[in-house]
């Protein structure tokens, strides 16, 4: 079964994925920041009880666990694959997770809210992500009683999520705008439309490999459809700006850029050790070159999947053990060299 990041998707040169997240809270519990440990355990078990119902009604296989039962490597790898939020991975209170086998759906239990339903799909497809998240929300609603107010909508621990409780986001690859140092200006422009740009893992994180998240800020007073349409409009504008900037760069320095792309390939293919930061930088250059047709591989190859695979947690998860940075750097180089296809 293909994971979302293994699929070939439209507009994948700029938009890596689309995600919709729904914040929900149960009526009979205090909000998570005020929840006592005994009630936190009860809450997690109550929400986990819907797992078999999800498997039956959503036509996917679902699994559930307590986050505390996972190793640090497991949690880090799940953050890197956008299954868990950094907050949930670090929280000491009892927390839980329900995850679909294809990693399209994850339900984070007792994060900032009691439930965070997340659906993530490849490419520019916010409608599909919302359709999936909404279906899971309907299934969960039949079993769990959500806190809802006729005037204010879904009750959430943070007022900025009240209303629909929905955050929609697109993960975007912006190497040309980053190279032109236009990201800060972009931050200011999109902010006027109730949209924000954050790092690769969301709020409080930085960009890696020129990857950012663009998401809505406002949830109260707008319908789910309005939120999606507004975000789509902004993302399409960003996409156009990025593509125009790529064309401009290539018109000025195509030989220099092509040389840079091939150098990146050579380092990735033949290095004996490489840090995760260097790997992301060269993989970003390689993706840019592949997206622009400057370099071609002898088989289909998903560079973003490798970008996740070279991260510390995912790499150690593949190795099956915790290792130091020197061993990781050597293992990372071996992994890249093995998985990187030959050139045509």
From TrEMBL:
A motif (RDXXRA motif of the pArg binding pocket involved in allosteric regulation) lies at residues 328-333. Appears to be allosterically activated by the binding of pArg-containing polypeptides to the pArg-binding pocket localized in the C-terminal domain of McsB. Keywords: Allosteric enzyme, ATP-binding, Kinase, Nucleotide-binding, Transferase. Gene3D superfamilies: Glutamine synthetase/guanido kinase, catalytic domain (3.30.590.10). ATP binds at residues 17-21, 82, 116, 167-171, 198-203. It comes from the Bacteria. Its EC number is 2.7.14.1. It is an enzyme of class 2 (transferase). It catalyses: L-arginyl-[protein] + ATP = N(omega)-phospho-L-arginyl-[protein] + ADP + H(+). Catalyzes the specific phosphorylation of arginine residues in proteins. NCBIfam families: PRK01059.1-4. Belongs to the ATP:guanido phosphotransferase family. This is Protein-arginine kinase. It comes from Herbinix hemicellulosilytica.
